[in-house]
Specification:
single chain; 172 residues; alpha+beta; Homing Intron 3 (I-Ppo) Encoded Endonuclease, Chain A; 3-stranded antiparallel sheet; 10 strands; 28% strand
Length: 172
């Protein structure tokens, strides 16, 4: 896996940058050409609703922090996890990552953040915070915002406008 990662990416300050990949990585010449023309030189991944950077490699979703660890040190030992030392799931610099047991990682979780509200997520492609709400089983887009506080305020207002009941104020 480490060899594949080194052939596929450059590592730069916590980010994986797609390289121009060899044809042997692909099933067809068309896939090889189109993928390289779209991705080579671009930062890999997107931010998930859980706040992690995730990307697709060989048709399988992968977390960037795990791939960065493997890129630098080889495979992750069985039963071990990769932890963000500073608790920032977007900070994938190798100096912020460590290999820990499940129990160690659980102790390190601490209290869930009250800053981020349910329905607010980072949209990497737009470099903006997105606010949305589900009403009557349908997801409604509220808007994109430059700051987390603005997106959270818009989400709270939408909850009031739509009469959404919240049993807790500490959802993430």
């Amino acid at each position: 896996m480490q060899t594949l990662l080194k052939e596929s990416f450059h590592y730069a300050e916590g980010k994986l940058i797609w390289k121009y990949r060899p044809a042997s990585h692909f099933k067809s010449p068309h896939a090889w050409k189109s993928t390289n023309s779209r991705l080579a030189g671009k930062t890999a991944g997107r931010v998930t609703s859980e706040g992690y950077v995730s990307l697709c490699l060989n048709g399988k979703g992968q977390y960037a922090h795990r791939l960065i660890w493997i890129y630098h040190f080889g495979n992750i030992p069985a039963g071990m996890e990769i932890d963000h030392i500073n608790h920032n799931r977007l900070d994938n610099r190798i100096e912020n990552l460590r290999c820990v047991t499940r129990a160690e990682n659980a102790r390190n979780l601490g209290q869930r953040s009250t800053e981020k509200r349910n329905g607010v997520s980072w949209k990497e492609s737009r470099k903006r915070w997105r606010a949305q709400i589900t009403v009557g089983g349908k997801s409604l887009h509220i808007g994109y915002f430059t700051g987390l506080a603005e997106a959270t305020a818009a989400r709270i207002q939408a909850e009031k406008d739509h009469g959404v009941f919240r049993s807790t104020t500490n959802e993430t």
